[in-house]
């Protein structure tokens, strides 16, 4: 957490309005959430922490942009998903999630009117009420002026945290009413270590991603996600092709054994992720085989993989057993079974089933 913010918490002198300002992917939104948690869950009460984990604390409120005419509570469900899945995401990620490509998203007067109601209520569990306003750049002029009036007469025991990336798009009078805390881009080393610890990737991959991310953790996570998705495909295609070839050429078994030995040295999380990927692909193939309209995009395109021919072999006779065998392999790996034996056994069973 930013040292300036830590000092505010230590001194217990928290301004009524803060502006966490920083470039995309700098973690200012995550910091705002953690800052709110430190204030509202002072004694690390388990019940309070659980509510924060679900992003459902009664004294924590959010304002965020969405299309005019939208219903706040409907978007709040998606907002909680966004904070869980993409806490370092930017406005374009949010627009993509709510599928608002052709409608402009702003913080409209209805949200500010609702904010006025909130600040007039008593807090439920804590001494304070905290409002996190994400992307103040998207405030309409009316909303900005109305928010300014609130800040001119700050409500007692209410903390407003603005979280944004460009203070040039905010009214100067509004900016003058908040305490600005500036965030910098993440360092190369921070992103490198974060990726290694969080996702168990090797240092060569973490160095590559950190160098490409330009200090933007959101960008780093997207690069990692693209690499991992391709990596899953790259391993799946030769493996499934070898299973089909094994029916005609017994010596292909050596390649399957080699691949099982290779997987044995992966980190456990990576092993499980690959097995979950297998399960998803077989289920998608089964669905596509019976109603191709339900699968809009072909999941596997690597190395001219013939998705249509593959789907023919996945049907009601084998999908249940394939799913059961993959789930059993995941269970065995979680319980520290010998991975190369587990995966070789799984490969041979799927070979018989298809």
Short account of what is shown:
With 354 residues, the chain is α/β, with parallel strands linked by helices. Helices cover 58% and strands 8% of the residues. The strands form 2 sheets. A 5-stranded parallel beta sheet has the order 2-5-6-1-7, with helices on both faces. A two-stranded antiparallel sheet has the order 3-4.
What does this structure look like?
The chain is α/β, with parallel strands linked by helices and 354 residues long. It is built from 16 helices and seven strands. Helix 6 runs parallel beside helix 7 (141-152). The longest helix is centred in the middle third of the chain and has 29 residues, at 217-245. The radius of gyration is 25 Å and the shape is elongated. The mean pLDDT is 91.
Features:
354 residues; 16 helices; 7 strands; Rossmann fold; 5-stranded parallel beta sheet; alpha/beta
Beta-strand residue percentage? 5-15%
State the helical fraction: 55-70%
Task: Domain count, please report it.
Answer: 3
Basic shape? elongated
Largest sheet: 5 strands, parallel
CATH superfamily of the largest domain: P-loop containing nucleotide triphosphate hydrolases
Major sheet: arrangement of strands: 2-5-6-1-7
**Low-pLDDT sequence parts:** none
> What's the CATH first level of the largest domain?
Alpha Beta
Named CATH topology of the largest domain = Rossmann fold
> Order of helices and strands, N to C?
HEHHEEHHEHEHEHEHHHHHHHH
The whole-angstrom Rg is 25 Å
The name of the CATH architecture of the largest domain is 3-Layer(aba) Sandwich
Distance between the termini: 52 Å
Count of extended strands = 7
Helix-and-strand structural type: alpha/beta
């Amino acid at each position: 957490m930013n040292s300036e913010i830590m000092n505010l918490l230590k001194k217990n002198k928290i301004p009524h309005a803060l502006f966490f300002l920083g470039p995309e992917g700098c973690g200012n939104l995550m910091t705002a959430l953690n800052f709110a948690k430190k204030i509202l869950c002072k004694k690390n009460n388990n019940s309070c922490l659980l509510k924060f984990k679900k992003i459902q604390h009664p004294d924590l409120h959010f304002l965020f942009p969405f299309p005019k005419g939208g219903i706040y509570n409907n978007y709040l469900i998606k907002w909680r998903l966004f904070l869980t899945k993409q806490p370092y995401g930017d406005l374009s990620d949010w627009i993509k999630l709510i599928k608002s490509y052709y409608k402009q998203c702003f913080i409209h007067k209805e949200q500010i009117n609702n904010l006025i109601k909130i600040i007039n209520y008593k807090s439920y569990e804590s001494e304070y009420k905290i409002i996190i306003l994400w992307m103040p750049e998207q405030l309409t002029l009316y909303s900005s002026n109305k928010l300014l009036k609130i800040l001119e007469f700050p409500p007692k025991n209410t903390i407003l945290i603005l979280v944004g990336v460009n203070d040039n798009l905010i009214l100067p009078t509004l900016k003058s009413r908040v305490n600005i805390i500036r965030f910098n881009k993440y360092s190369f080393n921070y992103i490198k270590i974060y990726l290694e610890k969080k996702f168990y990737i090797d240092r060569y991959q973490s160095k590559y991603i950190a160098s490409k991310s330009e200090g933007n953790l959101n960008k780093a996570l997207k690069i990692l996600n693209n690499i991992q998705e391709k990596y899953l495909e790259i391993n799946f295609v030769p493996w499934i092709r070898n299973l089909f070839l094994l029916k005609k050429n017994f010596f292909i078994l050596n390649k399957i054994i080699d691949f099982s030995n290779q997987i044995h040295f992966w980190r456990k999380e990576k092993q499980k992720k690959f097995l979950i990927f297998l399960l998803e692909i077989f289920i998608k193939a089964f669905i596509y085989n019976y109603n191709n309209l339900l699968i809009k995009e072909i999941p596997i395109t690597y190395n001219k993989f013939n998705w249509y021919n593959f789907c023919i072999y996945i049907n009601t006779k084998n999908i249940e057993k394939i799913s059961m065998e993959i789930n059993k392999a995941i269970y065995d790996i979680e319980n520290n079974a010998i991975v190369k034996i587990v995966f070789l056994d799984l490969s041979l069973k799927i070979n018989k089933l298809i």
